[in-house]
Amino acid sequence: MPWLSAKLLQTVTVAVLDVPAETAQERILARGEDHETLEYLGAARAAYLDLARSRGWLVVDATGTPEAIVAQLMDAAASGQPRNALQPVARAGHGAAARGPCDSFPGRASSGRR
């Protein structure tokens, strides 16, 4: 995924909506459509945060309400910074680099929908 993002996302702003793995799992289970293990969600989060740090993507704290998340995105858009100049927010505790967000992560379970 890193090579693909480097090639395709040169002229766009990318925002990673970040939540702890436990929060992501709670939201997934509440929908009742999929099940993802904490191990998979933690690895996916780490991979996306590593990509955000290395590519200069915006990282948005998505633990709040939808309105708060949209407000953060709107503030970033209104900041007047060039698209690729948005700096990721420092996030603690996301762990070591993972292989990347994909179905080969341990514990990946899907309903088959993409």
Automatic annotation (TrEMBL):
Residues 90-100 have a biased composition (Low complexity). Residues 84-114 are annotated as: Disordered. InterPro entries: P-loop_NTPase (IPR027417). Coiled coil: none annotated. Keywords: Kinase, Transferase. One of its GO terms (molecular function) is kinase activity. It comes from the Bacteria. This is dTMP kinase. It comes from Citricoccus parietis.
